[in-house]
């Protein structure tokens, strides 16, 4: 079989399987039912050989390449799949464990993740540490047989469902801020872990604040090495960018080009030259980003990883979404902010419009992506970093008072 034949055959198997197994839209179902469907679908993906497509076979993955992953993502975009509870585990924590986990950690956690049995979250951001996450203040202090953690995290996606989290904590405040961090696996059901929902302006609560009060973590829960948590975080953030870039919104998403054309027809303005121009521009940007992402994946498959160009894709995706929000708001008019709750289409559109601006913040803000592009791709001078070599305990950062973390 030629490469082209093999690719077509893989695409056709994926398409057939998805057509036969994709559950119907989950929007509007009670949260417990949505979660049940998500778990069942993840297990079905695994049994069919479509979970962990690029993960090595030794850890339960399929050992395939980015080409197969790309085909799966393209075909999956035709459906509204219930994969949301697993995005952090499958896209970020799992791949980081594949790279850095001990053999025991891989054996314990990866199969459960692939099978949809356990949900993960990422515990990096804090009230005083977002873009500058290395300024975090959550402390892990050595105890006889492990660590004791105290502190607060925020914006933790899916923590309300999570069984485990990848926690970044400060283990040595006497070292400079990037050098005294460690990444841990934390049991989200352990005594002392409190999860509180945070609502965004769409009215939903996709993320949470998480408190740690004397939470005990065993020694074998360290991911990578003690005090090398920054390196582990960089590994995870690399996977995060790839995951955000590779995840395609379903075509049925209300902010996708095809849905907005439908909306223009519904509102009776599809023939209006100004609306047509807006929609054409949106299409051109959507297509350009698709092709840019496809090119990066092909280059990665050929041994040239995207590196800082992942930030171009992340920024372009956020800007595209902003353009889509403007077009959708113009077309929907007052329905964008005051919708009829009994009108499912209007409610879905309004929620899409109100939750989409978060994409300019989540996974690194647009400004931070611009800094990365400026410094690492365009070769512009670096931002001054006067705090890089100073012991963390001497810095006045976040909510820390001088000497407050010793
Ligand atoms: C939907 C959503 C989901 C999220 N999920 C998670 C999660 O699961 N786990 C997790 O750990 N975090 C999560 N986050 C947090 C996210 O990573 C942070 O919000 C983000 O990194 C920005 O940090 P901040 O909110 O503290 O803003 P800040 O860092 O305080 O930034 C405030 C403003 O200053 C600008 N700014 C900051 N530094 C610079 C600079 N050097 N140059 C120019 N401008 C700058 C920013 O662009 C922004 O406009 C999520 C956020 C969102 C919106």
TrEMBL record:
Residues of the Acyl-CoA dehydrogenase/oxidase C-terminal domain? 227-378
Segments forming domain Acyl-CoA oxidase/dehydrogenase middle: 121-215
Which keywords belong to this entry? FAD, Flavoprotein, Oxidoreductase
Residues covered by the Acyl-CoA dehydrogenase/oxidase N-terminal domain? 8-117
Q: Which Pfam families match?
A: Acyl-CoA_dh_1, Acyl-CoA_dh_M, Acyl-CoA_dh_N
State its cofactor.
FAD
Which superkingdom does the taxonomy of this entry point to?
Bacteria
Identify its protein family. Belongs to the acyl-CoA dehydrogenase family.
Q: Which PANTHER family match?
A: ACYL-COA DEHYDROGENASE, ACYL-COA DEHYDROGENASE FADE34
Q: Specify the protein name.
A: Acyl-CoA dehydrogenase family protein
Protein's organism: Pseudonocardia alaniniphila
């Amino acid at each position: 079989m030629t490469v082209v034949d093999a690719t077509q055959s893989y695409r056709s198997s994926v398409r057939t399987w998805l057509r036969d197994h994709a559950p119907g839209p989950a929007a509007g179902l009670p949260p417990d039912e949505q979660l049940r469907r998500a778990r069942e679908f993840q297990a079905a993906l695994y049994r069919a050989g479509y979970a962990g497509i690029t993960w090595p076979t030794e850890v339960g993955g399929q050992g395939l390449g980015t080409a197969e992953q790309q085909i799966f993502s393209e075909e999956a975009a035709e459906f509204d799949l219930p994969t949301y509870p697993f995005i952090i585990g499958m896209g970020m924590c799992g791949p980081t464990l594949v790279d850095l986990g001990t053999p025991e950690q891989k054996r314990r956690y990866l199969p459960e993740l692939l099978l949809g049995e356990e949900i993960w979250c990422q515990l990096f951001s804090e009230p005083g540490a977002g873009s500058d996450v290395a300024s975090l203040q959550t402390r892990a202090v050595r105890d006889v047989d492990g660590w004791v953690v105290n502190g607060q995290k925020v914006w933790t996606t899916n923590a309300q469902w999570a069984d485990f989290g990848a926690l970044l904590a400060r283990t040595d405040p006497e070292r400079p801020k990037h050098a005294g961090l460690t990444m841990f696996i934390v049991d989200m059901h352990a005594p002392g872990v409190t999860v509180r929902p945070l609502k965004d302006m769409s009215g939903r609560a996709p993320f949470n604040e998480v408190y740690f009060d004397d939470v005990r973590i065993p020694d074998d829960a360290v991911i990578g090495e003690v005090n090398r948590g920054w390196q582990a975080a960089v590994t995870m953030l690399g996977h995060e960018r790839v995951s955000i870039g590779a995840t395609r919104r379903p075509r049925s998403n209300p902010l996708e080009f095809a849905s907005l054309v439908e909306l223009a027809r519904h509102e009776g303005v599809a023939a209006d030259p100004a609306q047509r121009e807006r929609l054409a521009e949106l299409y051109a940007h959507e297509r350009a980003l698709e092709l840019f992402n496809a090119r990066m994946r092909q280059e990665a498959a050929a041994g040239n990883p995207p590196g800082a160009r992942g930030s171009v894709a992340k920024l372009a995706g956020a800007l595209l979404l902003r353009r889509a929000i403007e077009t959708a708001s113009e077309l929907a008019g007052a329905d964008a902010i005051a919708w009829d709750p009994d009108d499912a289409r209007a409610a879905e559109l309004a929620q899409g419009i109100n939750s989409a601006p978060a994409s300019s913040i989540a996974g690194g803000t647009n400004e931070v992506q611009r800094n990365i592009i400026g410094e690492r791709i365009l070769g512009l001078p670096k931002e001054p970093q006067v705090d890089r070599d100073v012991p963390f305990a001497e810095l006045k950062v976040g909510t820390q008072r001088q000497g407050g973390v010793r």
